[in-house]
Amino acid sequence: MSLEGKMKNGRLYCEFGHEMEENKAYEKKIEYQRVHCKELVYDYNQTRPSNVKEKRRILDELLAEAGEEIWIESPAFFSYGCNTHIGHHFYSNFNMCVVDDCEVFIGNYVMFGPNVTLTVTGHPVWGEYRRKGAQFSLPIHIGDDVWVGSNTIILPGVTIGNDVVIGAGSVVTHDIPSHSVAFGTPCRVVREITEEDRLSYRKGCPVNEDWDRD
């Protein structure tokens, strides 16, 4: 299987040192993508917050897809950028880190707290493989209306459904179903989201009727 095929199909691979011409060419392609991403990320993080148009221009060039009304607080970091798809109405607080050696999909109306990390890439447990640079990549999928709390880490191959809250400090190692609250290390479902959550924004705190207007 080619280097590209291994990267996109969850197989072990090394990013460098290939002899086949096809793989050498792909090595050069992904090296260009990584460096180009770092240049754009540097520009984004150095752009003044008030220069909204320029920050948006950079995101449009950096990401595979960038929906309407995206705001990513600086600093933020990507490995490739071109493998990350972000839907509409996305907000991320400071220090978002996306290791996107393969594709990352983020839905609509998603919020990240500070210091959220998404990594599609891992390394084998057997040390000899790591010595030679072996790694694998599995895509991450995040649905709509998801809130990911601060200092959360989402690991390779995870799918998070729609209408999910991931509690702060979680390490998400496996799929999380829709309409649930989950947290912990490893992250686990604690309860379903119910009608009570529409009536109270936290335990003992009823939703005030004027929450969305003066």
Q: Which ranges are low-confidence, i.e. pLDDT below 50, for 5 or more consecutive residues?
A: none
Percent of residues in helices: 10-25%
The run of helices and strands is: HHHEEEEEEEEEEHEEEEEEEEEHEE
Question: Looking at the chains present, what oligomeric state does this protein adopt?
Answer: single chain
Q: How many separate helices?
A: 5
Number of distinct beta strands: 21
Could you describe the largest sheet, including whether it forms a barrel? 7 strands, mixed
Using the alpha-carbon principal axes, give the shape. Answer: globular
Class based on secondary structure composition and strand pairing: alpha/beta
C-alpha end-to-end distance: 60 Å
Mean pLDDT, rounded to whole units?
A: 96
The rounded Rg comes to 19 Å
List the strand order in the largest sheet. 2-5-8-13-16-18-19
Q: Beta-sheet strand percentage? A: 25-35%
Protein name: Acetyltransferase
Enzyme class: transferase
Pfam families: Hexapep (PF00132), Mac (PF12464)
Family: Belongs to the transferase hexapeptide repeat family.
What does this structure look like?
- Helices cover 24% and strands 28% of the residues.
- With 214 residues, it is an alpha/beta fold.
- The chain has a seven-stranded mixed sheet, with no helix packed on it.
- The N and C termini lie far apart (60 Å).
- The mean pLDDT is 96.
- InterPro entries: Hexapep (IPR001451), Hexapep_transf_CS (IPR018357), LacA-like (IPR039369), Mac_dom (IPR024688), Trimer_LpxA-like_sf (IPR011004).
